[in-house]
Input
Amino acid sequence: MQQTYLTLRTQAIVFADVDKRILYRLVSGSAVSRSMAHEGQQRLTGPEEKVVVKRSIHQDDRGFPPKLSIVLDMGLHLERKRFGKVSDAFGKNRMSRFL
Output
């Protein structure tokens, strides 16, 4: 079975609501999601955030609601474990936006 490939111009016509530049970036591999684009600017990695969420849910299941201070301590502990030190403090609204 022979596969037919559409040119980018034809794809832009077929998918009329998609900008041609976006298709070029997708094909070239330079288009990334927002979370991937800013991954280097985040203090916790994706797996570390999942650990904090999983631990918070586990505490809640056991009857201990996850307080912001506890979640902040978990984040600082993970950061200290990875870097050996803690850089600047988290912003005052960081944990409430995280949850």
